[in-house]
Structures are given as C-alpha cells and as structure tokens.
Design goal:
There is one protein chain. This protein is of the alpha+beta class. The chain has nine helices and five strands; from the N terminus they run H-H-E-E-H-H-E-H-H-E-E-H-H-H. The chain is elongated and about 90 Å long.
C-alpha cells in the first residue's frame, strides 16, 4: 500500500507542531498513535512517555482498550513498551504466543491476545541522548511489517521527539525566566527594606541588613518575606524597629 505524500506530510506536520499549547502529553501521544495506525497499517498503537526521572509517566493510545492495557502495563512494569524504554532499542516484531505469556510478559500478553492482537513491535522515543518512552504497534497477524513501514514508524517517533524537545526547552525557558523575575523582585524589595530600616534605626544600610537577616534567621523566615512586611509597614512579632517607634540608639 502506497501512502499519499500529502497524508504523510500532514501526519509529520501534526507531530512536529508544539503540543504544549493545546494538548496534554497523553493527548499528544494519542495523536502519535492515531497517525501510526493510519500510516503503518497496524491494528492499534499505544505509547508511553517517561518524565522527571521516571517519576511521571504518560500513556496514549489509538483506542480506549489499548490505553487501559498500556496503563496497566506501566503498573506491572512489563510489556513491549517497558522493555523498549529500558533498553533504548527497538523491539522487533514479536508473536504473543504461549511461550511469551509464560515467560516474558505473563500479564501483558494474555490481555493483548484477548483484544485480538497477536503480534507486537515497539520503537523507542529518544529525547536528546536519552530514551524517554516508546511506541507500541499491535497487529492481528499476517505479513510482518516491512522495512519501509518500520522506517516510517521511526520517522513518526522522531517527529514526536522534536516536538517534545521543543516543549521541554520552552518549559525550561519559562521556568528560568520566572526564577529570574522572582530573584529580581526579591532583591528590589530587600533593598527598599534596608533603606526603610536604616532610616528608622539611624544607622547604615549594612547594619540594617544585618538586623533584617538576623531576624529572618531567628524566626525561620525568608529575608525577602520579612522585607515585604517592613516595606508595607506591617508589624512583626518581637521586631524592635516598628514603624511607629522611634529609632533606637
């Protein structure tokens, strides 16, 4: 079966677009699976994405039954997606025969067979230098996937990886920007508090900062939070330099 160029281009464009603005990770993986079924001639597909040092896992699939199967497989820590992600290498087409049921995937294989899937292939999803997930292709049988189809499957996972990398870079950039803005705002507030406090104390800004820092440490507070209260004129417990009190010598 020949794939129309426009159909292939549409799929790659849909996967290469940034998903973060409109799609959750699970929805983006479902999109990858839908295009895989459409273009590769498989019966169903599932995908797993592992994030944040293995602590967060997202699942998507071409249909609800496979989605539930892959979600359970994540809990079981078995199945083609798990093996592919752990090894970082593609899993060649494998028959879900009784031997596999007994040894390799004792819980996954029977469930997949019950859904009518007799053969499975898994392709790794690489992000930078790490394998962060995998795409699982399920079929009822017949002729094995051709090398051309497997190459197209790898192209789909590469397009998805480009999108995920772009999204990660965007999130990292936003996080750094927020951190810098917070640090700048805190610095400005602290400088203002030093000026207010030095006036009340009749001392230098360095002396004012020493008092501010000592108070924050002794009360297990952040310097910036104490500074906000000082600038706003809010009273602080055990604070000797309240707004309405005269400066101490």
């Amino acid at each position: 079966m020949t794939i129309p160029h426009q159909q292939l281009a549409d799929a790659l464009l849909a996967l290469a677009a940034e998903p973060g603005d409109t799609l959750t990770p699970g929805a983006f993986l479902a999109r990858l699976c839908a295009h895989s079924v459409e273009l590769l001639g498989v019966d169903a597909a599932g995908a797993v994405l592992v994030e944040h040092g293995r602590s967060s896992r997202h699942v998507g699939a071409s249909n609800p039954e496979v989605a539930r199967l892959e979600q359970d497989a994540v809990k079981w820590r078995q199945g083609p997606a798990h093996d592919c992600w752990n090894s970082g290498a593609a899993l060649t087409e494998t028959a879900l025969d009784p031997a596999v049921q007994r040894a390799r995937w004792p819980r996954y294989a029977p469930r997949a067979l019950a859904l009518g899937h007799e053969r499975v292939t898994a392709l790794p999803l690489h992000l930078r230098d790490a394998c962060v997930g995998s795409l699982v292709l399920l079929r009822g049988g017949g002729t094995p996937l051709s090398p051309d189809r497997l190459a197209l499957g790898r192209a789909l996972t590469e397009a998805a990886a480009i999108s995920l990398l772009r999204e990660n870079q965007l999130l990292e950039s936003r996080t750094r920007t927020a951190q810098l803005e917070h640090a700048l705002t805190s610095r400005i507030i602290v400088e203002q508090a030093k000026g207010v406090l030095s006036t009340r104390m009749g001392g230098t800004v360095d002396e004012a900062f020493d008092h501010l820092r000592h108070y924050a440490r002794s009360h297990r507070l952040k310097v910036a939070d104490v500074a906000v209260d000082i600038v706003a004129g809010r009273p602080l417990p055990d604070w000797p330099y309240q707004q309405d009190e005269p400066p101490r010598a």
